Amino acid sequence: MSKVIRAVNVSKTFKVGAETVTAVDNISFEVERGEIFGIIGLSGAGKSTLVRTLNLLERPTSGQIFINDTDLTRAGIKDLRLARRKIGMIFQHFNLLMQRNIIDNVCFPMEIQKIKRRDALERAYKLLEVVGLSDKAKAYPSQLSGGQKQRVAIARALASNPEIILCDEATSALDPQTTRSVLDLLRKINEELGITIIVITHEMSVVRDICNRVLVLENGAVAENSTVDELFKHPRSQAAKDLLLIRNVDDKRRAI
Amino acid sequence: MNTFLSLVDGYLGNGVTQMLLEGTRDTLIMVFVSTFFGYLLGLPLGVLLAVSDKDGIRPNAVIYRSLDIVTNVFRSIPFLILLILIIPFTKMLVGKSYGTEGTIVPLAIAAVPFIARMVEASLKEVDKGVIEAAQSMGAGDFTIICKVLIAEAKTSLLVGVTVVLGTILGYSAMAGTVGGGGLGDIAIRYGYYRYQLKIMVVTVVILVLLVQIMQFLGMLISRKTDKRRL
Ligand SMILES: Nc1ncnc2c1ncn2[C@@H]1O[C@H](COP(=O)(O)OP(=O)(O)OP(=O)(O)O)[C@@H](O)[C@H]1O
Ligand SMILES: [Mg+2]
Question: pTM here?
Answer without folding.
Answer: 0.91
